Amino acid sequence: MSRSPLSRTVEILSDARYVQAESPRWDARDGGLAWIDMATGAFHRGRIEQGRVVPGAAVRVGDQIGAPVPLAAPGAGWAVAVDRRIVHVSDAGVVSPLVTDVAAAGHYMNDGGADPFGRFWVGSQSMPRAPHCALWSLEPDGTMIERLTGVTVSNGLAFDRSGSTLYYIDTLPHRSIEAFDVAPDGRLSRRRTVCKVDGGNPDGMTIDDEGMLWVAVWDAGEVRRYSPTGQLLEAITLPSRRPTAVALVDRLLVITTASIGLSEPTDADGALLGVEVEVGGSPASPWSGEPVR
């Protein structure tokens, strides 16, 4: 248990510990929670009950899983970015292809999320890291459009409620939150820096109902809340050094963490954490396409 300077209590929500838990998603269809273990290629689903994560189904999808988004219809499953492609994972755990060979050879899919218009946005990274990766959108009709090039480590993204602004993190080399205008057809323009993120690497991000940005800061042991103009509003100190991503389940801020690369992990490293906040958030936007039949 840890407390922020504002006396927030951070709780460990999960019994399980993960190598690199990422991409928590609140599912509007059934109120459930989904997340991934990036390093093991596993997609997890469960529920939050009485302040604890109750795990449910888990399926190994590939080697390097990046991000999941729900489909719109109840029971329709999930679109999941994994390795160099995007697949459909049914509620029964059946994995089938949606789009193959998206990322270049030697690259792999990383963080992503859906916008209010039903597009699934996802980016890539590579090892060794260099600015030759990209950000794409999977359109509702199943086509894949490259939206941004010259990316190094595509990480957190969040859309405002109207879908007209994209907040985006390419973690390296600038360690910044950026913003883009988004046209109705998904084209990006007017790229600008919202703020630099000091003391660690900005990773996963979500947006709350006031339009403020919550960012997990890897190696800083913090989750921070920024205004859309870049003002640091709050920093919550965590008992885990490597938070990876965040989601708001109503007013519960759910934080995934990693134990990877730590020689002496604590009991909280690799756990799912939670902290109550005053301003809630909305469930994950869905991809509005359909699986291949």
UniProtKB/TrEMBL annotation:
Family: Belongs to the SMP-30/CGR1 family.
Pfam families: SGL
Organism taxonomic ancestry: Bacteria, Bacillati, Actinomycetota, Actinomycetes, Micrococcales
Protein name, UniProt field: SMP-30/gluconolactonase/LRE family protein
Domain annotation SMP-30/Gluconolactonase/LRE-like region: ranges: 21-258
